[in-house]
Batch of 2 targets.
Target 1
Amino acid sequence: MNRLGLPRLTLARQLSLLIAGSVVLAVLVVGGLGALNLRKGFREYLQARDDEQLMRLVALIEQHAASDPDFAWMRQDPEPMRALMDEFNGRAPRQRPPRPLEPPGRRGEPAPPSPPPPPQGPGGAGNLGERLLIRDAQGQRLAGRPQPQGVPRTTRAIKVQGQEVAFADLLAEPEPEGVDARFLQRQTRQLLWAALGTIAVALLAAWGLAARWSRPLRALQKATRDIARGKRGTLLEPTGALEIAELMDDVNTMTRELARLEQARRTWIAQISHELRTPLSVLRGEMEALEDGARQPTPQLLSSLREEVMQLNRLVDDLHTLSVADMGGMRCTFRDADAHTCLHRVAERLEGAAQQRGMTLLLPPAEAMAPIPVRWDLGRIEQLLTNLLNNSLRYTDAPGTIAVDWKHDGRWLTLTVDDSAPGVSPADRKELFEPLFRADRARQRQSAQDGPQGSGLGLSIVRAIVRAHRGTVDANASPLGGLQIRVHIPLQADRSPA
């Protein structure tokens, strides 16, 4: 129901009504204009026909007037109009009876009206004599019926040697009747039937088109309802118009992404449970051993317990950082600084750890690079580079090489961290930045001498920091034989578009 309390129509019905209404309106307009044009055209045709016949009739009268400009031939004929129309229509003129001479003093007076000629059929020249009046130069009637006032007429002058000697007045054609009326009625009926047929076909076509257009929309509706209920296994077959097919393809993409996110959520929960259970199990076992008296609280045991607690603390801190970043709330305090000084300081801090593990850490020379003014959250950037270097130190075979480099083009800075073998497969490189993901080889080679175990969230935090600085990060094969992490960050991170 809408605001007016009326029931809402389905899209198919709305489309049907829209198409049908448009077609009905178009048919009514075209049909009405066609009917008006038919009647107007028919009248124009009759007018043109009358003009053509009147001109021929005037030419015939002018032939007679050339030898008798006083129109005695017409004044002496008791039925001049009938004789004139017989000659005009090509019929043999009847024998005209002699007319007695007029008394003196009455010459030129109008003759008594002659009886009208019998009708000769509708249309053509048949009723021409009934609508024709011939007047002399003084306006006196020579032949024809007197014409009523206010009726449209056509007047043509009858000339002899350029002088007007008489006039012919022809009344406009009256309303069609007989054959003409039947012709107009027949054409009007045909227009009406054509309009009704067009409307019927339009209604059927509108219903069919609306049903065809609404079918994929109903499928979309069902799919979105299934998604809302948690059923995400059915994919749509894109059909219909281009926009609808693209929308169905987008819904399929959304369905696949939701399924992937659901699987990632379950994997995330399982991995977090696993990561938490391992140090908790160690702590529980050591504490039970202490309670049973099987072990003594030596400094070494306490240090081991402390390391397990620290591992739990690191994991919880990293989970909190990622959770805040996922909610769009990673807080960054941007300030002006020198990127070269910041990055070089963080890398130098890890040179000792690299040497202890048998690694060679290659850095750009500090004195050879000019300052790079940036506006970053330096604490987050230091955390980013620290996580990248720790990841390389943890998963690179000794003796190995780790190379750090950064360059800029005036707007963006590109930071790359390359390490030597072992490398990461292309399939694993796509998942490296997912939380708690570790390649199989990386899991297998983690040992005690490698130092504190990572939380598995380091690269995920790197990605979150890069996004907070409106940059990008990707993983590729390194020319050194291992992994290359490449980060692009705008120099003015707080002023660049997201």
Target 2
Amino acid sequence: MNKIIGIVGGLGPHAGIDLAKKIFDQTLATIDQDHLPIIIFSFPADISDRTEFLTGKSHVNPAGGIVKVIKKLYESGATIIGIACNTAHVPPIYNVIKTEIEKAGLKIQLVHLIDEVAKFINKNHPAIKNVGIISTIGSYNTCLYDDVFKRNEINSIIPAQKFIQMIHEAIYDPSIGLKAQTNPITRAAKSKIKRTINHLKQKGANAIVLGCTELPLAITEAKIADFAIIDPTVILARALIREANPDRLKPL
């Protein structure tokens, strides 16, 4: 029997939908019935902003809201869980989630997005060792990707402060940002992201990780010229399929 995949959505809401779509895209299926069972719960108002918490603008740890959603998924039958948010995997948030899951005795498998990205790069792109990171300020401040990549012998290339602020605006700006304008994506947001990609390439990056689950909504290319663009949402989708039913995982 297929295990049920649970998606923690709402961080932002379109990112959870994107993860569900990519699970379908990465599944070997010829008929409806070949697809895996998925539950997505999106309760945006119950989960505080990750970057605001990590930058001290909020004292409410979003781990509490995420755990509530995971409990709802578990009660509904999901045992393989993915969180559709990179920043939620920083230790001050993720470690609390794990502790609360253990306390509650939930028999689930929580797939770690950032660990999966590092493993994917080493397995599928072994020649790539210098990886540019585009992410939220919260992820940068906690060295989320940098720490995981160091353990996996991958060098992180971090943008200059000017471009970190540019990406923050591309995600959060109320007039042009991805959280406010997801469909359609604004030209201004896409331009800021592409300028940061070019900047990281000039700094020596061999590839770019779109380290916020909203960024792949704007940058959908697998490559820009000969430059690899790595989408963590696709990697998480594949990891969830692998854990639920490896026979259904589409080959690369």
